Structure formats: structure tokens, C-alpha cells
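PROTEIN SPECIFICATION:
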Amino acid sequence: MSAGAVMKGYEELAPPASMADAVDAFWRYSAPPRGAGTGPELHRILPDGCTDLIFHFRDTGGPVWMADPSLEVVGPMERFALVSIEPGSVSLGVRFKPGWALPLLAVSPRELRGLSVPVADCSPALALLQRRLEDCRSPAEAQALLQESVARRLASFGQASRPRATQALRWLQSSGGQVRMSSLARTLGVSERTLHRNVLDEAGVPPKLLARVLRFQRAVAMLRSSGGEDLSAVALSCGYADQAHLSREVRDLAGLSPTALQLEG
């Protein structure tokens, strides 16, 4: 799920301050129940550079409140995806900032780029977490367990294992992707090749692509929050050469024009 998402049934909760370095958000999406003639809906998911841990299930509305549970890790995306959502399905998610999937989930975002993988194929610890989620008595309890699990992993982890990659990721995120790789490498005292390798290993995508996605996400947030912000002003604020450059990037990464993206949001 990407920043600026405003789908009906979607709720987002900012992480506690103790998790803010690692977690972008905890979120929940509840699809409308099945009605006469209704079927799966397609939702456009935008790239954000993050890795998500998502618990899916179907809300039965009965004493046994959950059916068809699954826990999966969704790696960083290079461009948009259209995802089919079944009526009555519920998703509880944790969105990890770039660089935190490897230390907190023990999975390589580089290997998961563009993929959605069941936790049984990732690690025994995550498979155990799925079983604990399945034993929860309510969605609220499952959501609390997800947050507790992340807090415990974060407390036991301490500091990131690759200081240079961590610092590079902070620069990229704080600048909204508006930094040249040559300047960033020089600031960190490494070669561009080393910067490329370290960020790719930690975030799952090369630094140039991550910078591109971060610029795009900032533009999306501005487009959706402004309700008619001048495209030239958005382009200038987000580091694009001009309005045409912004439009090309939005079409490539979102599959829509900026105006259509605003209307969809």
C-alpha cells in the first residue's frame, strides 16, 4: 500500500515514536462484503520503496470470525500493480521503511522485489507468527499482535548492521529522492558502485530507482491532497525538470496521467 492511498475501507495508523525509524505505518483494509452480482475488485497499488508484512483473511461474520488466513511478505515494487481484492477480505499490514525488512524480518528485499511470498517460504519465525495470528480471537487482537511482534524484533535488533547503507537511505528519504548519487557517494566517502550495492542489498532496489520512487510518492501525496494543485508547481517542488517530466514519471510508475491519478484517489 502506498502513501496517499485513500481507498474506501482503508485505515492507516502511524507507528509509535519508538518504531518510527523502521515502520512507515500499520494499516488495515476491509473490502466490502459480497453482494448480489459482486465479484473481485481491482485496486491500483503504487510503488513506495517499502516492504510489507500482510496478514490476509476473510471475515466470516460469524462466531469463527476468520477464514482462509495467510501471512505474506510483499517486496518493494518498481511500478504499479493491479491487485484483485475478494469481497469480504481483510488485510492487516505493517509497512517497513527501506532498509528494515532484512534486519526485522530476516528476508532479503532484493530477492523479493516485485513479489508476494508466503511466510512459509521465508523463515520459520514468520511461519510461527502466522500460527499465532490464526489463534487470535478478533481482528483487533491480530493487529495488536503484529505491532507487538515488530516492537519485540526492533528492541532485540538494536542498530542497523550497515551504517553506510542506513545513512544513505536516510539521506534519500529525508530529501524525497532529490539527491544525486555522485554527491551522496562523495558525502558518505564511498564509490558509486559501493553505494549501489549497499542500498540494493538493504532496500531491495538500486538507489537511483529508490530516489525515483520517493520523488514520485511525494508528487502523489501533493496531487491527492491539493485537489487541483498546479502541475508545474508540483513538478518544481518534487525535483522534476518540468510538468512534462512529472507526467511521464506518473504514467510510467502509476499507469495513469496525473489528472487521472487525482480523480482515482
